[in-house]
Design the sequence.
């Protein structure tokens, strides 16, 4: 089985070295290149043909979302579909939504656990959306099992809202796809939190995978 080819783009050499060790230790991944600024990551993507670009948006010479768009434009010249996974310090919904609109397949904060980063790389490589995001002051909520326990069953509409939000869609985008108001989406989101204890985007994603709303690993 071919390994996932990863290009690491971050201006901090120590962080790149740590990521290279982490990714290189996985049997299904390999690091094919590194970049320290925006222009270099675009050039490296064209010459190394990565499957996944692990991209920091705050590098010197990087224009944030424009760098994502440039990477998307160079994707047809690569050997396989190019997926972009943003790895950033910016833990806010606006930045996440802008990155996904620009063409990123995933968005994960740098304080995430190593295992979550590896899961994110595999997820975006297989064409799925992965989002790790928390709200200020939000505490981690333990996941509940999709079967048994205290988890209450979801209605068909709640399941659909869960799937769309887990894929990284905004409330407005989910509302447009379902033909309902943003207020309706907000109501269903609150019910998901009340029923399942799912507060962050990452928890929505993990639960959606567990119950089969998104393709599992």
Sequence:
């Amino acid at each position: 089985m071919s390994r996932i080819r990863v290009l690491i783009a971050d201006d901090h050499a120590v962080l790149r070295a740590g990521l290279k060790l982490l990714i290189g230790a996985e049997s299904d991944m390999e690091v094919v290149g590194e970049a320290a600024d925006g222009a270099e990551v675009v050039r490296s993507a064209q010459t190394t043909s990565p499957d996944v670009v692990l991209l920091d948006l705050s590098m010197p010479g990087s224009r944030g979302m424009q760098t994502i768009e440039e990477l998307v434009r160079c994707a047809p010249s690569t050997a396989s579909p190019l997926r972009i996974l943003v790895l950033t310090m910016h833990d806010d919904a606006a930045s996440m939504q802008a990155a996904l609109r620009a063409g990123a397949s995933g968005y994960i904060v740098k304080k995430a656990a190593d295992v979550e980063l590896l899961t994110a790389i595999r997820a975006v490589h297989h064409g799925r959306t992965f989002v790790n995001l928390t709200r200020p002051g939000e505490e981690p909520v333990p996941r509940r099992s999709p079967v048994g326990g205290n988890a209450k069953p979801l209605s068909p509409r709640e399941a659909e809202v869960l799937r769309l939000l887990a894929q990284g869609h905004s409330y407005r985008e989910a509302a447009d796809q379902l033909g309902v108001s943003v207020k309706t989406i907000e109501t269903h989101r609150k019910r998901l939190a009340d029923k399942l204890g799912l507060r962050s985007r990452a928890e929505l994603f993990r639960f959606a995978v567990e119950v089969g709303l998104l393709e599992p690993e």
User: Anything to note?
Assistant: The chain has nine helices and six strands. The CA atoms of residues 8 and 34 lie 5 Å apart. Residues 135-217 form a domain with the Arc Repressor Mutant, subunit A fold (CATH 1.10.10.10).
